[in-house]
Amino acid sequence: MSEALQANGAVDTAPYVNIAAYKFVTLDQLPQRREQLKQLCRRLKLRGTILLSPEGINMFLAGAPEAMDEYLTTLRADPCFAELEVKFSYSDSQPFHRMLVKLKREIIAFEQPGIEPANYTSKRVTPKELKEWLSSGKEVVMLDTRNVYEVQLGTFHNAVDFGISHFKEFPDKAREFAEANRDKTIVSFCTGGIRCEKAAPFLEQVGFKDVYQLDGGILKYFEECGSAHYDGGCFVFDQRVALDPDLQPTGNVQCFACQAVLSADDLQSEQYQYGKSCPHCYLTQEERNQALLREREVEFLKGVTPLPGSQPYVNRRFIHVPGRLAGLPMMEFLTQWYPPYGEPAWREAIDHGRITTEFGKVVTLDQLVREGERFIHAVDEAAEPDVSTNVKFVYEDQYFVVVNKPAPLPTHPSGRFNRNTLSSMLEPVYRPQKLRVTHRLDANTTGLVVLARTFQAASALQPQFQNGTVEKVYLALLQGTPDSDHFQCDEPISREPGALGSRQVDEEGLASSTVFDVVKRCSDGTTIVEVRPLQGRTNQIRIHAWHLGFPIVGDPLYLAGGKLGEQQTISVEDQPMCLHAWRLTFTHPETKQRIELKAEPDWNNFQ
Asked: What kind of architecture, by CATH, is found in domain 7-103?
């Protein structure tokens, strides 16, 4: 009679035999071993998982009894596995979907130096000995080394567990537990014993004086002692999910999303969705959205700490040749392509080899350029000014992203800012997608910024900002107290910038209208207002408020008394400029429905 059929000394007629086995032994030639085991299991139609590492083997397999016998005979022919011990159970169906043979650094991840079960393990207590200890009232601490979702399904009476979600968390918890329990007798246990091969020696390493490990784990205890001193079932890592003390499936299933063990009531819940959620992890759509936004914020902060532009660097700027400039000599082309840089600067860049083709070839002064050609200008950039990274993610779907921008933070690269800009800092978060800014806030203004995730979404959103169909509401703190609760400025704004990029009211300028509504007149002589710019001119709100004699508190450029300042962008240490893009309402590019988004300001700036 086969080993698989006579396990426990009794024949089981179930069509599938399940085995759990491990052995700590030094292994080499892992890729070859992996291939041999894959071929063997494929031929025998076995399913499950085999883990191979330099420290040994761990496996959970299921198949026909005769196939399993041949597998074990073949495996034990290798001297490394000659004394492999196996635990058997049975099932009416195949509990595994596929066959995997994986190479790992450890067959049970622990990541603690000096723990080598092939060379040393702690004292063992057999299941029958443990049962006698517990029945006689022997003072022992039963320490469950498993993860919290396994413990929830069943454990020994009065057992201690550390509430861990991964075995790698065990060492830190064990060090804490050791402070008050080093002199107690500890019996560690787990499903089949493998975790205790590392957990028990580690307990000795941190100072426990009398440590045992349950030989064969809970499954071996069930075989020999049944349910004595044990409540519930035992979690197993296959489709059966849990076994009772008779080693039969309990009928529980496991949530695919959070791995919680589910009861019959859980399965009847509306919150249970196969492969997606269960009552333990179910989130409403709004809760899922908020969780995603918080994850984005964490990822964003990782990428901007330290600030990407905090150190000097070489900025490689692309130069594209348009058709109207094709055929010109290089020097003439560059001076026409970007006149502000100046002929001396372009000549110096060429002389020092800082302008090259895409393929790295240095250009010459008189070579002719061709339409569509692209060159690279390597510019030595100084470290960029510090900016605020307190970006809050307000909304995201497959079409666009909306963030609450802090200040100072430029929206896009310009002037002294390239890497320390909102669009550049968001790029790695959404890579390989390239976000497109659909409208702009200046560096000093806080509030809502909408970025499209696709070209099609940008094509639908940008025209809405350009043609005025987006309803924009700002909050501002003005210097002074207007007489009227509702007032408007309709003065045109200059087309071209002046000093420091400033613009002013200009009769020959662009038509502009801004509506102001008082929210609160403050005791310090300032006024909180709602502001609706009917166009989107550069600095429109700031210019109109300044022109009316109520400049915005903290504005470094448009000062009281009609004066212009000497600074365009505030620094992180400066008093904030109290202008906030509060609400946006626009048409969604897919649903065609109007959508309103809001970002509350930092009201400390508006007191």
From this structure: 2-Layer Sandwich (3.30)
CA-derived radius of gyration, the chain: 35
Longest CA–CA span in the chain (Å) reads: 104
Contacts of 370 (CB under 8 A, 6+ apart): 321, 326, 327
Instruction: Tell me which of 3.40.50.620, 3.30.2350.10, 2.40.50.140, 3.40.50.970 is the CATH number of domain 392-606.
Output: 3.30.2350.10
CATH code of the domain occupying 313-381: 3.10.290.10
CA atoms of 280 and 241, how far apart (whole Å) = 16
Q: Would you say residue 49 has pLDDT above 70?
A: yes
* 526 vs 475: CA distance, rounded Å: 13
Phi-psi region of 182 (alpha: psi -120 to 50; beta: other; left: phi over 0): alpha
On the question of pLDDT at 363 being above 90, the answer is yes
- State yes or no: pLDDT of 102 exceeds 60: yes
β-pair type (234-235, 242-243): antiparallel
Catalytic residue annotation: 190
pLDDT at 228 over 80: yes
CA 430/CA 423 separation, integer angstroms? 11
Please state, in angstroms and rounded to a whole number, the distance separating the CA atoms of residues 477 and 467. 27
Q: Which residue has the tokens 């819940």?
A: 269
Query: Which residues lie across from 277 on neighbouring strands?
Result: 273
334 with 352: CB under 8 angstroms?
A: no
Distance of CA 363 to the CA centre of its chain: 43
Cβ contact 127:224 at 8 Å: yes
Q: What per-residue confidence (pLDDT) applies to 263?
A: 72
Token duo for residue 61: 């397999």
Query: Reduced to 3 states, what is the DSSP secondary structure of residue 437?
Result: strand
pTM, entire model: 0.56
Q: Is CATH 3.30.470.20 what the domain over 123-251 is classified as, yes or no?
A: no
